[in-house]
Amino acid sequence: QLVESGGGSVQAGGSLRLSCEAPGYTYDTYCMAWFRQDPGKEREGVAAIFIGRRTNTWYADSVKGRFTISQDNAKNTVYLQMNDLKPEDTAMYYCAADHRVRPWLWWVKSEYNYWGQGTQVTVS
Fold first, then answer.
1. Is the confidence at residue 19, as pLDDT, over 90?
2. Could you tell me which of 77, 58, 67 has the C-alpha nearest to residue 116?
3. How many helices (H) and strands (E) does the chain have?
4. Using CA atoms, how far apart are residues 27 and 45, in angstroms rounded to an integer?
5. How far, in Å, CA of 121 to CA of 103, rounded?
């Protein structure tokens, strides 16, 4: 089970850092990602990090240059640092993980079998 934290309300231009802890997730190679969803819209991939012998990251075009995904292996935790937030970033943010994600499909929600409950981000 994934546990997210760090959401909240912020003014445009501000920053937030989301955390996703994956206790007991013991695969040597796996992918963790952040998705977001507005009511009535599809859940969209925001960023992903592929953790293995090498680490790779991917971002949606809408957040490149503003968001950074990173990991703390010792804590089994992935972070999403969000800077220069915009009102259109307002959404419920979900953490996802799976060891079978095909890297070129990191943004596809069906690639992931493990999800957190979500944390709300509101930008005004």
1. yes
2. 77
3. 0, 11
4. 22
5. 26
Give the model's pLDDT for residue 43: 95
Residue 59 has pLDDT above 90, yes or no: yes
Distance CA 124, CA 122 (A): 7
Separation between Cα atoms, residue 74 and residue 72, nearest integer Å: 6
Are 122 and 90 in contact, with CB atoms under 8 Å apart? yes
Reduce the DSSP state of residue 104 to 3 states and report it: helix
pLDDT surpasses 80 at 15:
yes
C-alpha distances (whole Å) from 80 to each of 12, 40, 48 are 17, 24, 9
What is the dihedral sign for C-alpha 38, 110, 113, 75? Answer: negative
